Amino acid sequence: MKKAKKHSVKGIAEKLNISPTTVSFVLNGKAKEKKISDEMIEKVLAYVKEINYKPNQLAQSLRTGKSKIIVFMVEDISNHFFASIARKIEDLAYEQDYKVLFCSNENKDKKSRDLIQLFKDRQVDGYIINPSPGIRNDVEALIQDDIPVILFDRYFPGLKTHYVGIDNEEASYKATLHLIENGFKKIGFITLATTQTQMANRKKGYLKATKEHALASKVLEIEFDSGNPKIKKELIKEFIFKEDLDAIYFSTNYLTQSGLEVFKENSPELIDKFGILTFDDHEFFKIHTPTISAIAQPKDEMASELMKLMLVLLNKSSKDLSPKEIILKTTLFPRNSTLVKNH
Amino acid sequence: MKKAKKHSVKGIAEKLNISPTTVSFVLNGKAKEKKISDEMIEKVLAYVKEINYKPNQLAQSLRTGKSKIIVFMVEDISNHFFASIARKIEDLAYEQDYKVLFCSNENKDKKSRDLIQLFKDRQVDGYIINPSPGIRNDVEALIQDDIPVILFDRYFPGLKTHYVGIDNEEASYKATLHLIENGFKKIGFITLATTQTQMANRKKGYLKATKEHALASKVLEIEFDSGNPKIKKELIKEFIFKEDLDAIYFSTNYLTQSGLEVFKENSPELIDKFGILTFDDHEFFKIHTPTISAIAQPKDEMASELMKLMLVLLNKSSKDLSPKEIILKTTLFPRNSTLVKNH
DNA sequence: TTTTTAAACTAAAACGATTTAGTATATTAG
DNA sequence: CTAATATACTAAATCGTTTTAGTTTAAAAA
Where is the HTH lacI-type domain (chains A, B) (predicted)? Predict the structure, then answer.
């Protein structure tokens, strides 16, 4: 197999004895507008097809300032929730000839900032960001620079940005009601120690429901990176077994997993005495014993709303589009862990 | 906030009253070699630092032909196994100033080919590929073009390429022995209907072990995309309950999940009568009832070996490096599903 | 017939870097 | 004292596009 020599606009022009300008116009569909004759268009198109010419994206990007690349930055791309959305985003983007750079900020500001800086130098066209708590200014700076940014899952109160997410408070409120309706009276809430909106609102929902029903509210807040995972489990263990509870509600599947491990490792039989509910669904909750009730976020829909909005932003040169908030519906899947109880 | 004007080599040169060449030499560490004086170096570096200049990667890429982007193509990026490796690859790549384009080929040849074509136009520097069955020629073409390619998880027999993976036959053989040693005599093997190496070798290992111990071998092969998931589960259900078996060994966690669902949905209590073993570990296997024995692939190590090798390839202009095969060790985690049985 | 306007194309600059092939001055060798 | 060599820099080409500002010829208007 011989090394195919690179084709170029210039080469094509020479071969056809015309100017690169003409070739470029035809290639970019500006032929009509630029009064190129039909025969000429035909000729160029035919040759381009014959040699299967594909423009050099780098050169194109350099000239136009558009890289046709978008960034999808999340807390952890290996997390099932984010990975599923990423998978969908990928498809939608490639369909439109965009590439996606996926990256994980570990919910750390330094990492977020480093990544954003990195991408700025690469003139990425747009950002979909699941922001770490302290990057409000950086997000603002991007917006000031007129670069399309969409936040998702969490946002910065008061900062007007495009946003795709769910109504965490409402979802959490309803989920807590579900527990209450099923007879649970001493509901513990295990969440992350953070002021970020998604978690804060889930807590609000929980507190609202318990308060309304005059139930005690017991909350355990765990540091995100509480060093070693042992500590996390120790905290959960203590909370579950020392507090006087009849149900546990986890604010995110990251914690649920640890919680279920705690049961498994300590007293597997005891899990049936508790109501268990979790934010974020996972296939495995359907095969766990007992099956675990969960609040599912509409991952596919989130992905498509994100990309739909992003494409609009990418094609607007004028940034006249006022910040758009897209709030999607969650679904509560009641399963055995909160239904058929023997309490 | 005012829009920061773009800096450039040319701009810097003008400001300092020197030539762009000099600036470039200094920036690329060629100052000494090009006999630039120490004061000059100092001056340039100081100014560059002052204005926090960052070179335009696109321009750089166009000129040098290196995009500093690598592709990580897998079957499905939302799959836990691949997502975990991706997460690690990401870190290692960014450390070296490389970006990574993640993408999923769904194990389909057309998608694989489309993606490769897409990236060629973007002059990606290197490819890490989990190949679909029919893209041998495309991979060969990339290698002919002298572009770094590493296959992983599966390979093309006879085609010499760089490769990172495990010894699937050996791992599968040992896993089957584990079942046999724990008293199981009628072991069913559920796998995908594919001739791809990773699956073929897992089957080989299973067959070898059962044959050696004069046990019957019963294999169920399922089409990857057998239309609707119902059909897949129907097949599994029939296999599990109609064949006379005392253990089930799944060749990949994609099938294990369905298998466990089958048990859950039909007769949850029956799972304790079977030995259950799966290829590929998952956190949830530790909290399933019973806990599920699994063969774990060294995901982190795979990722680091992949990137280590990739970086070597990227820095070799000469392609003198003969194809390197890196075979890593798996770990068998025996858990309750194969240990404490009442059969 | 002369002037305008339209049609069909093109030359050359620009995007922002890297690199080859110099030039001018200073130093050393012969 | 001249020639050779080293030092310290630079002009201009190049990567492969896009786009602005033309030019030339033909047709329409005056």
Answer: 12-64
